[in-house]
Every structure is written in C-alpha cells, then in structure tokens.
Design brief:
Radius of gyration: 18 Å
Helix content: 40-55%
Structural class: mainly alpha
Distance between the termini: 46 Å
Largest sheet: none
Length: about 140
C-alpha cells in the first residue's frame, strides 16, 4: 500500500522532489546523515529503517536538544549547535510521523488519556524527576 494518494489531483500535490530540494535542502541532508549515523549506533548498521519501538520520544528530548542547541550557539560552538538542532528536527519528524500514522505520541500507552491527566501523570516532564508533579497551567 502506497503512502502517496491514488487520486490524480491529490498525487499532483505530493511534490516530494520540489520539497526536498526547494525547502531546507541542507536540513534534509543533515537529517539523512543523522539517521544513517544513528542507525549504525543503535541498530548495528542493519537496513535503514526507523525502529519505532526503540525510538519513542517523550518530549523531553525535543526540549533538551533545543536548550543544548541554543546554548552551543550562544557559546559559539556551531558544530555542537548543528548536531542538537539536527536531533531536534529529527525528533520533530518522529512526532509528526507518529501523529500522521495514528500512533500515540511521546510513548503514551493510552492515546485517549486527556492532556491534563497525561501531564499530571508525570509524563509531561514538568518538574523534579519528571515524575508525579501535577501540571497546573493556570
């Protein structure tokens, strides 16, 4: 089963090459290289395939890479900043893919858990040790 629509009008809207080369081509290359290197690190170089069960972000990785990337940039360490922002972009892709594929985001076991309950469970990462700290947005 193809992920590309079968309807001709919808197919014409899937401009993969235009997107890959026209929007952020350097970022696409950085994410592809990161995926390759991570695959060697985590899967021993077995075929390039996202190990969905091994790589389940919980949201904290996104925030850590954002903070670490900003800190590295402020400190003038471009290479370290590029690494963290590449990881951030990859984790963003992971989250979007999970949502588009009807997979629960951030490793939530029950995707019907209300946001407030999920945050209160400690999974939302809002406090000491990220466990059991109630979330109060007010």
């Amino acid at each position: 089963m193809s992920i590309i629509p079968t309807d001709d009008k919808e197919r014409a809207k899937v401009r993969l090459l235009d997107y890959m080369m026209g929007y952020f081509p350097n970022a696409q290359v950085a994410k592809a290289r990161h995926s390759y290197e991570s695959n060697i690190k985590h899967n021993g170089g077995e075929g390039m395939e996202w190990a969905k069960d091994k790589s389940v972000g919980d949201g904290n990785q996104i925030m850590r890479h954002l903070v670490d990337g900003m800190e590295a940039w402020r400190n003038g360490d471009r290479d370290e900043a590029v690494y963290h922002f590449t990881c951030l972009a990859w984790r963003g892709d992971e989250l979007l893919e999970r949502i588009l594929d009807n997979m629960p985001p951030f490793g939530i076991k029950n995707d019907t858990l209300p946001f407030q309950d999920w945050m209160d469970s400690g999974s939302g990462g809002m406090g000491e040790g990220d466990q059991g700290v109630p979330f109060n947005p007010r």
